[in-house]
Each structure stands twice: as structure tokens, then as C-alpha cells.
Amino acid sequence: MINMNTIWLVSFSIIIVSRVNPVPLNLLRDGAGHVLSEDDDAIDLWEGQTYPKVRRDRNKATEFKYMPKIVTIYTGFDKLAAPPRCTHEYSKETHRRKRYVLQGKRWKKHDLTYIVRDYTNDLTKKDVDKTIMRALQFWADVTPLRFHQVYKLPADLEIRFLSGKHGDEHPFDGEGVILAHAFPPESSKQGKVHFDEDETWTLDTHKGRNLLYVAVHEFGHSLGLSHSEVEDAIMFPFTPKYKDNLKLHEDDIAGIQKVYGAPGSEAGLLSQRKNYCSGKRIDAATVAVDGRTYLFSGKTVFILKSDGYSVAEEFPQPIWTAFPGGPHSVDAALTYFNRKVTYLFKGNEYWRYSVDPNGNLKADAGYPITIKRGWGMDISDVDAVFIWGNKLYFTKDEYYYVHDGYSPLPGYPQHFSSHKALRHLTQLDAAVKWTNRRHYFFSGAIYYRWKHSSGHGYMTGPLDTAKNWLGCET
Questions:
Q1: pLDDT for 94
Q2: Is domain 267-468 given the CATH code 1.10.10.60 in the classification?
Q3: Is 156 flagged in the annotation as binding?
């Protein structure tokens, strides 16, 4: 008899299972010991009370007497007489195998954003936000990963409470059986975490479905872990009874650190973090098409936190980690929202980036190309590119060019002294029109802020870049 309180977890992969013929379990398992099914994108959480009927032999592979049309199933055990596992086979050899299982997929960055798009009606929004943050902190405490809640898209992790058919290939089925599912990194739906709203979600009680446990487990899948064979691990294929002192098992920690490392394990990066406050020059700055603020310095890039006043914890990073396929260093950057693209300039060439369906930056095909070919200006390189009014400004030394988005305007270049904002500057390394609609001009380790006012405006500065943009202490 199947334990009515047992909750089962299911991994999807690529095998289609017959409804009629029994299928040996060993045909459905991969080499790591977890079951395969139709879709390797999703990992589901199942509850065992309406589980399909199975016939078990303790020493042999299990056969399925009946299977629903979907496919992936973990065996059930009457009264859990044998250790409940994804079962490879019951032998002492099992205990010498590596327990945690990696998906082979990971996030290529350590600073991740998340959004709760749809809330459950069972708990207050405050309780859900607090629980989601707490669940993510389990993983942040043992890795270099950091998570920041945002309140509008794009976000790396997208959390929703949904019912029935909800837009992916894995509809929920009402109360019981399927409780939640998550999509792993580098998949077509990476970062999406769905909870079945037909369940009763609870906190700090034996009743209902414990949101904290399910969330910690599902986020493990979202970060790149599959199921573990260790019964006490959170990534084990079904849950234990409610615990009021939930914590990661050493197997969970070993698995996630295999993917991302331990906190502070990147000595070189930590050294960079300590040193970036010393006279840091900004070479380029932009609010990219993904909505994040990027500051470029040498071969590294910073991403600002959502508050805009400090650097995300795992940065700086090499530029290629945020802009794959791009230059190793950057002279200037521009985001042109009319075309929904971001440009990186280096020498006489530039690269173009857009956003993929998951909200990540991707290099567009056919780049880099020369500035002369793409913009019609015969210049060897640029110091800064920014938007002013409805025009694009390209600067080189103490001169600027104006472009209308189609072709350069005649009568340029002109000296900085002829422009109401640039006349305050003798050197310009980077410029950006930021989210508050003010212009920021970077020069060496300082910057100036231009605020438009009644058609005129005024300049404030010099100001300390390290203190006000990078969050460094004075």
C-alpha cells in the first residue's frame, strides 16, 4: 500500500512510454540513476497518493503494470519496506556511487534576479516573498550565488502559482500527484518555476504542502541539480515528513558546489573586488537591452544591483561572461531602444546584442562590423557614444559627431565647447543616459551629472565614481 503522505519527484527526459506493455525500469534510467521521460527541460514534483500501480521485486528491476500517457515514473514501495530511492538496484554497491546528480547545465553568472509573477491565495504575499527569499538563501549560503528580487521582467528566475494548463507542455492536474515543476539552466524555459495552485500551500505545519521544502528542492533543479540517491538530501526524489529545522544535507552542498564552487572560492575575483575601489576608470557604460546597468573597465564588467548604487556581489567579471562572443575590452557602449539592441564598440568595429526568449543577452550574427560600414563614419575608434534628445552622439578626444540613426549629420565633428553639457568637460571616457533620464559623463575616476531643466539644464560634479556607482566606502 502506498504511503498517502509520500511526495514523489519526477525528472523528464526523452523516452516515450507505452500505455499497455510493461516497461523495465532499467530502460528508463540514465547512467546516473534517475528516470528518463519525454522532455529533458522540466523536472516535476509528484505526490504519491494516486500513483500508477507498480509491481516490485527487491532484487530486480521494477516493471510497470500500467502507465499514464506521460511517462516518467518512480517506483512506489508499500510502507517503504526498502529504502525509497530512484532505484538503480538494491545492493551494497549503491552506497559507493556518487550520490548527487548534476544536470550538466549551469548559470554562467552568479548574480541572479527573481520575480514572483503570480502568488498563491493560500498565503499572504509577504509570507510568499519571505519564503522564496529564504529558500534561495539555502543555496546562496553555500555558493557564490546571490539572488535579488525584482518586480518587473526580465528576471532570471520566474516563479508562478498556476493551475491546470498554463502555457507549457506540463499542465497541472488538480490537487495531488504533480505539485510543482522547474526548468533547468540552458534550457528553452530556463528559470521558470511553477507551483500547482490547486494544492494547499502552508508554512510551519504538518498540514498541506510545505512551500519552503518544495521551493528549496525546485530551486535546486533551477540551478542545475538533478535528484540525489541520499535519502536525507533535499534533492532526494520525494519528501520526508515535515521538519521545522530544514537544512541542506552535505550531499546537496557537495552537488551544488560541484557546479558553482564554495563561497569565496574564486580568489582572483575576490582580489578584484577588493581592488576595484582604487581609482577605477570607467571605459564605457550602458543600460543594456536586458534592463541592467553595465559598467566596463579594462577587461572586466560590473553589473549594478537593482538599486543602482552598488555592484552585484559576483562582479566584476570578464566581459565575455555577460557579453558572449564580444571584445575583451570596450571603448564605448550604447543601447538603442528604438531597435531593442545594445552595441559594444572596440577600435573601428562594433558588436550588437539583443535579448533571447529567456531574457539573456545574445550576440547577433554577422558582427562585428566596422563603424564606417554600419554608421557611415570614417573614424578609427570612439571614446563614448550616448543618446541626446533623439540623436546619437559619438565622441573622440574633445570632438563630437551627431548621427540621426540612419546617417551622420553634416557639419561635424564639433568641439566640446559648442555643446551645453560637453563644454564642462576636458576629457570624456564614457557616457550614459540612465534610467532617471539624467546624463552621466565619466572622466578618469570621477563623473559629472547633467540634469535637464526647462530646456537648459545644469551640470553637477565632479563626483566620486567608486563611492556613488560602485558602492565603495570613502
A1: 33
A2: no
A3: yes
